[in-house]
Design goal:
Elements: E1 8-11, E2 17-24, E3 27-32, E4 37-41, E5 45-47, H1 50-53, H2 60-71, H3 84-87, E6 91-94, H4 97-100, H5 108-128, E7 133-137, H6 144-154, E8 159-163, H7 166-169, E9 173-178
Parallel strand pairs: 6-7
Antiparallel strand pairs: 1-2, 1-5, 2-3, 3-4, 7-9, 8-9
């Protein structure tokens, strides 16, 4: 490229701009914007437009657009909130027979049947109302009711059951997690 004295140039691969003051063969001496004279090879320089050096690269309309963009209020990032279901305490169903009825005159089979019917009715209610967790309090005892409850819960495709919080319920409760959308 042909350069002449007075051309504004920029140095490739460096952040240096200036004006050509002398040309000596392939060497070009430029005076930088800071007032220093530096020597470069012609292949290391690029001719630049003088309007770019004087700061006219932005039109007034683009400056106004940039200022307006900066002045626009930014939306505050929304904090993630846990879904309602996870914040609610689990539904509790006490299956102790004295909580359900007056057991006088009932056989063990009748009491067990009443407890299982209550558990099934409450579980169906929780599924219908989209309640995610239900704790069935069955007590420790001989483990017959717990075994029958596990058999009942096993017939549902959309539930998972496990021992409830030991600190709160001890060994006498089972927690049921109900999958709301799909089968696990």
């Amino acid at each position: 490229m042909k350069y002449k004295i007075g051309d504004n140039v920029s140095v490739l691969d460096e952040d240096i701009t200036g004006t050509i003051v002398r040309i000596e063969g392939a060497a070009v001496i430029i005076e930088t914007d800071d007032g220093f004279e530096l020597e470069f090879n012609k292949r290391e320089l690029v001719l630049v437009n003088t309007s770019e050096l004087s700061g006219d690269i932005f039109s007034k309309s683009s400056i106004v657009e940039i200022v307006h963009e900066k002045e626009r209020p930014k939306r505050n990032p929304q904090k993630k909130t846990k879904s309602k279901e996870r914040l609610q305490p689990p539904m509790e169903v006490d299956l102790h027979i004295h909580q359900l009825t007056n057991q006088k005159g009932m056989s063990n089979y009748d009491m067990l049947s009443l407890q299982l019917e209550t558990a099934q009715r409450q579980l169906d209610f929780a599924i219908k109302k989209r309640i995610q967790k239900v704790v069935f309090i069955h007590g420790v005892g001989a483990g017959v009711l717990k075994t029958e409850l596990e058999y009942l819960f096993g017939r549902y495709n959309n539930v998972k059951y496990y021992d409830a919080n030991y600190q709160k319920y001890g060994l006498g409760a089972t927690e049921v997690y109900i999958y709301q959308n799909a089968n696990p």
